[in-house]
Amino acid sequence: MNIANRLLLAALCLLPTLVCAAPAGDAEAGRRAFQACASCHAVGPRAHSGFGPQLNGLIGRRAGSLKDYRYSEAMTRSGIVWDERTLAAFIKGPSDVVPGTRMRFWGIGDERRIADLIAYLRGFSLEGGAVERK
Question: Looking at the 3D structure of the chain, how many domains does it have?
Answer without folding.
Answer: 1
